[in-house]
Amino acid sequence: MTMSSPSISNSGSRAGSCLVAFLLTTSLLLLPSMFAQQENAGRIRVDVNLVLVEATVKDKSGRVMDGLAQSDFDVSEDGAPQTITHFSRDQLPLAVALVVDLSASIEPFLRPLHYATQTALRTLKPEDEVALFTFSSEVERRVDLTRDKRLVAEQMESFSAGGSTNINDALHEAARYLEEQRPSARRVIILVSDNVPSGPTSIGSRDVEDAILQADAALYSLKIPGRNPLQAKLDARLSGLINVAKAAAQAGGEVFDVEKEGSLFLAFQTLIERLKTRYTLGYVPTHTVRDGRFHSLKVRLTSSHGSEGKNYVILAKRGYFASPPRAAAQ
Q: What is the pTM of this model?
């Protein structure tokens, strides 16, 4: 009897040690999965066919319509009605590419832009990310996507202007960057420019528009009154360079004219507020085919709100490119 006690005690000790080791090993194995879940929080487009459409709704007087619910919207793809399965408002993280024109025509606005950017970006959500691109004759990515908005504002302290206005290359590079780096975020391009492209480019306007749609990015423009002669504006139209207003409308964005808004600061503030008041609608398309084709979209309010164009206006992307077919297994 007295000899069996140590044996039982040792067995219990060994069993307890084994249990602790098992629990520790199991918890360590689970950690990568837990971190992966945290990293993907709010990113609902990974490995699913869900299509997200962001929409700004204005009444006939131009005021943004607040308080709309999922049941107030209808979405159709290629003319076929879709069932909305996701509805939110400024809940998913943003990935913003701020694309700043540094051509000679906007030199007087560089100091006001620094102040406006520093103030406006602080109102974004902590998890929202911003990247900074600048361009004149060439495009430069100065800050990679970061949650530290101060890095973007600090870069602007050393800006100097000069050269032509290569908007085509700048928008194309920003769109491709967002598509590659943040495939699961809400993607936005903010262009700060006089919107008068000039100089040589190897990228046509159609290629730029397609790149923005393929990146599923909304294009917003802060239009600065640059010092451009009338002939420069005419040359831009005749040369086939990008029409920023048209591209923004196709991607569901807007152009904010600094002269009409009163100042660059007010225009930037209004733009950021607009990003926060967009509705996000999600649906799984009925075709569910990876064909790589462009599919047209139409977002409306239900008939109880009247007719679009007369009683309200919706700003939303006009379509998207579906994922390409998966490569056959080797």
A: 0.80
